[in-house]
Amino acid sequence: MNIDDVRKDFPVLSNSVYLNTGGTGPISVKIAKEIQNIYEYARDYGPDTPKVKSDLENRMEETRSLSANLFNVPINAIAFTRAISEGMNIVAHGMDWVKGDEIIVSSEEHPSGIMPWLNLRDKFGVKVVKVKVSEDKNTFLSELNDLINKNTKLISLSHVTTDTGHKLPAKEICSLAHENGVAVIFDGAQSAGQFSIDLNDIDCDFYSFTAHKWLLGGWGVAGFYVKPEWIEKLNISWTGAYAGIWDRGLKDDVVYETTAHKFEFGGRQKPLYIAMGLAIDYINSLGINNIEKRVSKLTEQLRAGLLEIPKVTLRSPVDLDFTTGIVTFSLGNIHGDQLSEEMLKRNILGRPSLRHTDISGLRISTAFFNTEDELDFVLNAVSDISNKI
Ligand SMILES: Cc1ncc(COP(=O)(O)O)c(C=O)c1O
What we know:
By secondary structure, this protein is of the alpha/beta class. The protein folds into two domains: 3-27 and 287-388, Alpha-Beta Complex (Aspartate Aminotransferase, domain 1), CATH 3.90.1150; 34-284, Type I PLP-dependent aspartate aminotransferase-like (Major domain) (Aspartate Aminotransferase, domain 2, 3-Layer(aba) Sandwich). It contains 14 helices and 15 strands. The chain has a seven-stranded mixed β-sheet with strand order 2-8-7-6-5-3-4, sandwiched between helices. Helix 3 packs antiparallel against helix 11 and helix 12 runs parallel beside helix 14 (372-388). The longest helix has 21 residues, at 50-70. Pyridoxal-5'-phosphate binds at residues 83-85, 110, 112-113, 158, 162, 187, 189-190, 210, 222.
């Protein structure tokens, strides 16, 4: 991977030290241009003329195929969604709930990974219990095991947690869950695009992913993997055009698709789904394993440097099995918002983190396009702030 060439693809990198891919990943010149090209094509030849329509639909299906390959699952198991939350809600409203059913989430979920379950709690009396995210795999799995009981119906976890970037042991979680007849959904917001993910091997029941972070594919487009055996079992919640066939006016029978398409409804932002495919293509061209290796090297540099700065407390894991591109730290008692502002004054874009706990800090998302020099610049900035407090 030639980093100088890669960096030319992302103009933002000449304007700031961009370390918030965990918030929203930058989009490339090529993707922004292609979205514009597609709109111009539709503008000039008509969005609904057969040729334009079929060109765009075929390209959208290429994105579905690229997504399926990225996760090593069948193409028919991928539904297009608009956000991680949509995938979570497909499951929340697709399973049957009775009072007393239990759902296990982690202590570090994003609102997308907990609000759908709290909604079920308020509607049906489902219980939501939390397992503490811990760095020791055996401790985590043993605490998870202790929480599973005959009422547990679903485990919903971030594959990589949003605040501290812990990578949870997905395969072991699924195996433990399935031994107990419990289904598993992962929120893949912070994982997809960071490292290789083989959902066939992990064996989860559902996986919700988004284009707008580590896949660098832009806002408002996402995907949902549903294990083939669940396609028929999962009830439909919202539905409409493209989920199946309803014979206009002759009879009122609905025939749903027999693939994950049945969870899709309504018209789509076709250019943006095509952009998601281009983004996956770009990741593939660099090689997901190369991306993972580079990110791991950069984050090691960042972690090691941070640990040498007085008043820094690292909040992210250090065990390589658990680390990702997300490195979160606290500096003395400075609030994350203030730390973030101090960084912004130096043109460094991170994100305040751990807002919902009594510990505050800054989340740095290190992506493959970041450089060693940028991280040194960040470390100097943290040192400088540390000296002033
Ligand atoms: C773990 C996690 N889940 C979900 C999201 C976003 O979810 P949605 O696509 O529903 O906005 C984020 C970040 O925005 C996140 O960090």
